[in-house]
């Protein structure tokens, strides 16, 4: 994938090393501290529906490199993704069909009343518990705690050139757009926030995003 860098981001050299060190330390602490939640979710998933506990989904990371992103399985197995593809195509093209919510709460990239989602899946998605296994990706160096959200490959196929600027950093579990409106934002607004983050990165910005994330999660907005 050819990428054109339109700016020099501050996340280089020692800054990149420091961010990685913080990712490792905090990720291990969160994994240990949330172990009871992992155990509870795994039991609930087994009792609720057939299928694996974890779901490995191909995503596009830094410099356009694909990787497998871990999540707790929230859907029934062997489900069709054509509806989500349609919604994302509309969102990226800024079509009105991208917003399935009411005028005050448009839903970005979500299938409304999605029948593919299990009962437990609906709950863990609402509070972003399904995202916890991505801490494994952080430990492996494929993701960061904070950064642009990694897209699915079929979404990237519809990107305009300037959208690809978001691949100049390691993708994150949370990010600036998640704490700035989350799925109420348009796709272009999301990308602009990612680019702003890349241009203005600092440890204080990461800390501010991390501190805001629990409040957003507790409100129960669906993550992307």
Layout of strands and helices, then pairs:
Elements: H1 14-33, H2 35-48, E1 54-60, E2 66-72, H3 82-92, H4 119-126, H5 134-140, E3 144-146, H6 153-156, E4 172-174, H7 187-199, H8 203-218
Parallel strand pairs: 3-4
Antiparallel strand pairs: 1-2
Helix pairs in contact: 1-5, 2-4
N- to C-terminal separation? 23 Å
**Biggest sheet, open or closed, and with what strands and sense?**
2 strands, antiparallel
Q: How large is the radius of gyration? A: 17 Å
Helices and strands, in order, run as HHEEHHHEHEHH
Going by helix content, strand content and strand pairing, the class is: mainly alpha
What fraction strand? 5-15%
Residue windows where pLDDT falls under 50 for at least 5 positions: 95-107
Percentage of helical residues?
A: 40-55%
The number of helical segments is 8
- The number of strands is 4
Strand order of the largest sheet: 1-2
Shape: globular
> What is the mean predicted local confidence, pLDDT?
85
The domain tally reads: 1
Key features of this structure:
single chain; 224 residues; mainly alpha; two-stranded antiparallel ribbon; 8 helices; 42% helix; globular
Molecular structure report:
The protein has 224 residues and is mainly α. It has one domain. 42% of the residues lie in helices and 9% in strands. It has eight helices and four strands. The strands form two sheets. The chain has a two-stranded antiparallel ribbon with strand order 1-2. A two-stranded parallel sheet has the order 3-4. Strand 1 (54-60) and strand 2 (66-72) form a beta hairpin. Helix 2 (35-48) packs antiparallel against helix 4. The longest helix has 20 residues, at 14-33. The radius of gyration is 17 Å and the shape is globular. The model is unreliable at 95-107 (pLDDT under 50).
